[in-house]
Amino acid sequence: MRFIHIILLLSAIKIALAFLLKEEISLYEDHDIALNLLKTGEFFYDCDGARHYSFQFPVYPFILFLIYKVSSVNLFCVILYHILLNALTALMLPFIFQKWLEIFNLKERAKKYSGTIVKITVLIFLMHPVINYYLFFKIHPFTENLFFFTLSMFMMFRFLEKRSTQNLILYGLALGLAVMDRATLAVTPLPFLILSKNSFSFLHYTRNIIALLIITCFVNIPWMIRNFQKDHVVGFASSGRDLWKGSISESEGSNYLNTGLNYYSALTLEEIKYCGQLTPAEQNEFFVGKFMKNVNDDPSGYLKLYFVKLKNFWIYRTLIGNEYPSFIQPFIPVYKSLYLTILILSLISCFLFRKAWMVMTMPAALS
User: Are 96 and 154 in contact, with CB atoms under 8 Å apart?
Assistant: First the structure.
C-alpha cells in the first residue's frame, strides 16, 4: 500500500468517526460571525456593547459562511472540511520533511532511513490527539491555521526547487492567505530569508524578497483598508484587547487570572460600563491605553512576563487546560513533557547539524 493510500485511509476512518462521536462541539466567535454574514450579509461580531467589523481574521469565518450557506448551518460539514484540510496538510508534509532532511545533510548510513522517518512523522501528525480534538470537537480555525502554515512552507520549497516566476507568485499568494488566516504566520518566511540568502545573488535575493512582500500585501491590504473604513482600526483585526490581556501579570498572558476568573475581572465595574459606551475604535484605544499603562508602570515586570509566557508555551502554566474537558486534563502534563523533550532534542540537533538551527527560527518566533 502506497503511503498516500494510508493517508486517505486514515482520513476515511476520521469521517466514519465523525458520524459516531457524540461529544458536544464547541463554538467560537468565527461561528457567530459566519451566522451574521449569512443572516445580514455583513461581517461583524457584537462585543462589549459595540458592533465590531474587524474583530476576527476573515478567512475561516468566510469559509464557515460558505459551508453554512450550502448546508443550512450543518456543523458536521465543518468537521468534514477540517478532515479535508488535515488530509491535504498530511499530503504536503512528506515533501517538506524530505527537504529539511536534505538540508540537515545526514550521514550516509542515516540517509537510508530518511523515508521511514518522514512517514512516521506524518503518521504522528495524523494521529496527534490535540490536533484531532480540535478537528472533531471545535468550530475553531486551528486546523486551517496548520494547513496554511504548511501550504506556505510547501510553496517555499517548491520555489527553491524550481525557481520560476510562477512559483514565486504562488508562494506569495500562499503566504498572503496564511497571514490573513492568522497574522502570526507572518514569521513563516524566516527559513526562506535564511535558505535563499546563499542560493541567489544579492540582486536576485533582494528582488525575491520585495516581490514576496508586494504579493503578500496585495492579498492583505484590501482587508486592512476595509477594517479602517468600518472600524477605524489599523490591521487585520482589533488588537488592543489582546495587547492588554497579554500584559496582565496575574493572567500570565492567558484568558484567566491565577484565581481562575476571566481576564475581564481585571477591569473595574466602572471601566466595564464605560467600555460598553465606546465605539470599536475607542475601545481599541482604551485597551491600548491600559496596555501602555501596565508597561510603563512596571517595565521590568513586563519583560519578565515575556519569559513567563515563553515558559508557559513550552513547559507549563497556572490553570493549564482549564478550558478542556476533565477527561483530557490528566494527560496534559504528559503532553507537555513530550513537547519539552522534542524541544530539547531539537536544541541538541542544532549542535549536531550545522544548519539545523534554521528549523528553530519559526517555533522561536511563534512562541
Answer: yes
Q: List beta partners, residue 52.
A: 45
**Sign of the alpha-carbon dihedral angle for 87, 30, 247, 291:** positive
- The whole-angstrom separation of Cα 64 and Cα 30 is 8
- Least Cα distance to 160 among 206, 200, 217, 107 occurs for 200
Burial class (CB in 10 A: 0-12, 13-18, 19+), 129: exposed
Residues whose CB is less than 8 angstroms from the CB of residue 295 and which lie 6 or more positions away in sequence, other chains included:
247, 302
Give 10-residue mean pLDDT values along the chain (367 residues): 88 93 87 96 89 90 96 94 97 92 74 85 91 93 96 94 93 95 87 83 90 93 90 77 83 76 83 87 88 88 83 75 72 79 77 61 55
SS3 content of the chain, % helix, strand, coil (to 5): 75, 5, 25
| Upper half-sphere CA count for residue 29 (Cβ side, 13 Å) | 15
Q: Which of 156, 134, 153, 154 minimizes the C-alpha distance to 144?
A: 134
What the block records as the C-alpha cell of 359 is 528549523
Does the predicted TM-score (pTM) go above 0.85? yes
Distance CA 200, CA 193 (A): 11
Alpha helices of 197-298 — where are they, by DSSP H? 202-231, 240-246, 269-275, 280-297
Residue 122, amino acid: V
